[in-house]
Design goal:
The protein is an alpha/beta fold. It is built from 14 helices and 8 strands.
Length: 412
């Protein structure tokens, strides 16, 4: 009897959680379906510090630095800094070979993107205070494997001049056609950009920071410092700033192309790291954000709190699947609560949402041929959540090797 009561409570709570998150996503998709219309740019005004964290990225960093050097923005209004974090290859040499790039060499046991960014920011702010460096209006951040649209800084300038202080660019895929793994990851990002991020932009809800291709107002960053300590410093930063009433805005015309894993093993390792960081931030920030959102009656803060629950919904789907299998083949009298009215919402998330998002963003019916592979590959999120939930205290930093070039057909 006690077991049945516990199972019934699990089913009720899990369906409430899943239903809320699915309804939220489907609702946003209605606002993201209509294409974004380009907007007029502000005249160049803001001065940017462009930061690139790199650990043994000699094979790919040169192309990114050339993109940054060729920005359609006055070169007098931005400087590029590379933070070479414990590099043992030719990363420093390659970076110094690009005109105008300043390289900070970082050594020591405290490795990883977060500590590297903190060191770079502190150095730039300190040089500005002492007069040895320039004062900047904003900081932009990139990974060394990225490629960047040549209008990126111009679009960030426009967003900053419009009053936005925390901006995330469009996260594209650098190597979508390498193999089926990169293809389905590319499709995931395509539908997320179109239906979720664009939906949030149109409804005024906060975007999410993707960890690269984002921009922060310099005064805000100086006030905040870089207190992030988790292995998903991007999500941690969103939560910290949300408590201060500052939220990320998505800029669909400023595109950064990110290299995606070419194997399931590397993708799983990456997703487990992301989920570990997500659970850490969930346990740390959910209650404070919920309390702040209710007290201030701010739906944007509540939206950030809801996003923290996403891994729990994935975890719940995994447990439900196991219980269904046990009830069907091993324990016939196991308590199972069927979705009922939620069935059509689940069907929408499994079919309508990805098919609409992929087609609208790629304009290719051929991409939909890979849709069954995407559905299968999405189960790696379930496994990643299970592993991450029970190992979230593990903060080991893994360096993902990079080497892909920009695929044919992608134009900066």
């Amino acid at each position: 009897m006690i077991v049945d009561d516990i199972l019934l409570m699990f089913w009720v709570l899990s369906w409430i959680l899943i239903g809320t998150i699915y309804l939220h996503s489907v609702g946003l998709s209605f606002f993201g379906a209509r294409r974004w219309k380009p907007r007029s740019d502000h005249a160049p005004e803001k001065r940017f510090a462009v930061l690139v964290a790199a650990h043994n990225e000699a094979e790919v960093i040169g192309a990114l630095l050339q993109d940054l050097a060729g920005q359609e923005y006055p070169c007098s209004l931005y400087d590029v800094f590379v933070i070479a974090d414990n590099c043992s290859d030719r990363t420093v040499e390659v970076a110094r070979g690009v005109s105008g790039v300043r390289v900070f060499v970082k050594t020591g046991p405290n490795r990883g993107k977060g500590p590297a960014m903190r060191a770079g920011i502190e150095r730039i702010l300190k040089d500005a205070e002492t007069g040895d460096g320039k004062v900047y209006d904003a900081f932009t951040f990139f990974d060394a494997d990225n490629r960047v649209s040549l209008n990126f800084l111009q679009k960030m300038n426009t967003e900053l001049c419009s009053g936005n202080r925390f901006i995330q660019g469009y996260l594209g895929t650098k190597n979508p056609f390498d193999n089926w793994v990169t293809r389905v990851i590319y499709q995931s990002y395509a539908m997320t950009n179109r239906l979720w991020q664009l939906g949030k932009r149109r409804t005024g809800l906060p975007s999410q920071c993707g960890g690269t291709g984002f921009c922060i107002d310099a005064d805000l960053l100086a006030e905040l410092g870089w207190p992030m300590t988790t292995i998903t410093e991007d999500l941690e930063m969103v939560c910290v700033l949300a408590q201060r009433g500052v939220f990320p805005v998505w800029s669909p015309e400023a595109v950064v192309y990110d290299e995606k894993p070419r194997s399931v093993r590397v993708a799983m390792r990456q997703r487990i790291r992301w989920m570990r960081g997500h659970f850490t931030n969930l346990f740390r920030f959910f209650i404070p954000l919920l309390r702040t959102g209710i007290r201030k009656r701010d739906v944007r803060v509540l939206d950030c709190a809801l996003y923290l629950l996403y891994p729990l919904s994935i975890f719940a789907v995994g447990i439900q699947s196991v219980l269904w299998l046990l009830g069907a083949f091993i324990i016939p009298h196991l308590t199972v609560l069927h979705p009922g009215p939620l069935f059509f919402l689940i069907l929408a998330m499994a079919t309508y949402y990805p098919i609409l998002g992929i087609y609208l963003e790629t304009k290719s019916l051929r991409e939909l041929l890979y849709f069954p592979l995407l559905l299968v590959f999405n189960w790696t999120w379930v496994l990643a959540c299970f592993v991450a939930l029970f190992t979230f205290r593990n903060r080991t930093w893994y360096h993902t090797p990079h080497g892909s070039t920009l695929d044919d057909g992608i134009h900066l």
